[in-house]
Recover the amino acids of this structure.
């Protein structure tokens, strides 16, 4: 990441891989042909990577038992990706997936222990992380390890504090680093309450100072879409806004990975999705520190599976029958355009508070806040384009 | 069960099957050869049956998805039993196993719903039960289905009331009955708080009136062993006591299955285990309504697995290396002797309260209560044998 401009020009483009058959339950019955077919879909869009989500408690059903076959199954998926020219980010602690928490029996009910604070659980997690990274790091196409998908969703079921969460992540990210190749990214993944929620026990600084990149997840159902609808500037600039916030809460030149971006119903109606994609990617792509865009997600969820929030079912670029949706083609073209787009920054605005030093001030930058609205207004261009203003740190005078 | 005396003479003898390799995690990687070897051990003791414990959330990871391969794996274990002359009881909702609760993500955290009271969860459970029973009932050697192992351990993690628990069990036991063969037993399984704990939201009547037999689980770590040690009459008559209590809380001639009986450390030291077995089986075998004894458990737990309560590791009749322990041979001989032993009942004693109508009075019959001590004293014989007194219902005068 020495050459920021080059990294940006080589904007990574990929998908969060949600299997079309049986969702992530497919890990229990790995079907090579089904996975290969899904990865063919993804590769057909010109993507260069996927992010994959092994399910933790099925791999480590006892704290001292990591199933060799389950690890081999993850390796198989990685290698199927390699055969199609796809690099792979492996997320380790799932953990949280589309509203469902997968937690092993050894941290539940009679064995209830916070995964963030219990020392024995920590020892088990560290061993799990080490085992998986040691086993998978040698795969040439693994380019990143994420500690776990949006691990802050595992709170409040698991008690923690801001200090405890940070120390937990530092320790486990260190375990990844110690066992990964030097060229593999180590990534921490949090949903955006880390930037917006005053009492949230995971901080913006966790995003911007832990691991090798700042990973941001842009979901406009967080209140943003209610500001100005599916195609309004606040909504379609939200990904860029998060990327700029990351820059303001850490080193200004630290790489930002837009690790999740989606067009959720009903916030973004299906017929508005392609336009939402074009505007969103154009705005985010104008952030020079952005190194990659990874769409959530590759495939829809089969409606024979139940209990998902309604908005989770139709997030795929492809249907469960492997048909590319209009948003998929719009995304492909938008990312290609973003690689050569202007990344000049005409405007800047300072944070209204030091939300790293004073997390209780985070509501001041949340979607709909005066600051957020001012940022959006500053970025709007008469020609309908959006030039995401730089956000600079709080300057108290 | 028309001929009680005959059923008693044909006392069933079996083991709760705990796999020697990987404990119940073995369901995730079924190893036919390893299971066959374990079942060979069990058959070598002259046992006629095993009770097996599929792990629910691995079979039904989504409320609307029962994994065909997982069901096939259960069938495989049943058939491996048949090849060795072993009948099989299939427990469905695990659920609770040796302190660990296995619960699917669709009843946890963001999807937290009581398995006992939520109507959507109920629909999912009924479907699960129906699918498994329909698939497995045709296997000739399946002689019983238990709704789930000690489902009352799933409370308090899942809220319930006595009425709700009973209605839940009635409904699901009905679903088993509707799909099982007429000659297959339908069984409800609760640990003994149903008889002893005043506030427990599962009642003695659940044991004695639901399903086809009263299933009792005798664990002397419930306080009994503290009365008079591993070989005292209170301790070694506890299984018989539960069987008699069942008779007093339901139809006097209803069959009783001693579905779990074990010699837990440190309550029963290893060198006392054979004698504990002899006395316990002799006392229980003197209860004429007893139809079977199923030892907990077949095999020890590999100490490389962690987080189990210490007493769970060494409960096996066999070590993880397939060596029969002294208690195993003592058990085989004791059951054989019980088949021809005297079942005359010289004494009887009335319950001190109607613990079915007034569950809050259950502490009056708990281990160590005046009633329990009186019952033990009444059963002791000068020759050291124990003749378990009949317990008759409370008679208010």
């Amino acid at each position: 990441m020495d050459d920021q401009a080059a990294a940006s020009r080589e904007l990574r483009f990929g998908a969060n891989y949600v299997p079309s058959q049986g969702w992530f339950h497919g890990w229990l019955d790995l079907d090579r042909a089904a996975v290969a077919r899904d990865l063919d879909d993804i590769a057909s869009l010109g993507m260069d990577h996927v992010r994959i989500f092994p399910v933790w408690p099925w791999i480590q059903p006892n704290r001292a038992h990591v199933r060799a076959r389950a690890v081999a199954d993850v390796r198989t998926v990685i290698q199927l990706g390699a055969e199609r020219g796809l690099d792979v980010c492996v997320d380790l602690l799932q953990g949280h997936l589309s509203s469902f928490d997968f937690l092993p029996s050894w941290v539940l009910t009679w064995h209830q222990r916070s995964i963030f604070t219990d020392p024995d659980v920590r020892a088990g997690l560290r061993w799990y992380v080490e085992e998986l990274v040691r086993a998978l790091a040698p795969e040439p196409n693994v380019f990143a390890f994420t500690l776990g998908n949006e691990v802050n969703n595992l709170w409040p079921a698991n008690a923690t504090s801001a200090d405890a969460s940070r120390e937990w992540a530092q320790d486990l990210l260190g375990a990844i680093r110690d066992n990964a190749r030097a060229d593999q990214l180590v990534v921490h993944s949090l949903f955006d309450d880390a930037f917006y929620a005053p009492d949230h026990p995971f901080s913006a600084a966790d995003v911007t100072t832990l691991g090798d990149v700042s990973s941001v997840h842009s979901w406009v159902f967080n209140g943003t879409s209610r500001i100005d609808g599916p195609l309004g500037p606040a909504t379609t600039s939200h990904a860029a806004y998060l990327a700029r916030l990351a820059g303001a809460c850490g080193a200004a030149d630290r790489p930002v990975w837009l690790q999740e971006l989606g067009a959720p119903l009903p916030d973004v109606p299906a017929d508005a999705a392609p336009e939402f994609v074009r505007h969103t990617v154009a705005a985010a792509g104008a952030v020079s520190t952005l190194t990659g865009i990874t769409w959530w997600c590759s495939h829809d969820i089969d409606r024979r599976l139940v209990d998902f929030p309604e908005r989770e079912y139709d997030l795929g670029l492809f249907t469960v029958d492997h048909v590319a949706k209009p948003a998929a083609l719009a995304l492909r073209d938008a990312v290609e355009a973003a690689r050569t787009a202007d990344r000049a920054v005409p405007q800047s605005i300072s944070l209204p508070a030091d939300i790293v030093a004073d997390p209780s001030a985070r509501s001041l930058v949340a979607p709909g806040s005066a600051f957020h609205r001012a940022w959006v207004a500053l970025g709007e261009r008469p020609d309908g384009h959006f030039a995401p203003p730089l956000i600079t740190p709080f300057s108290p005078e």
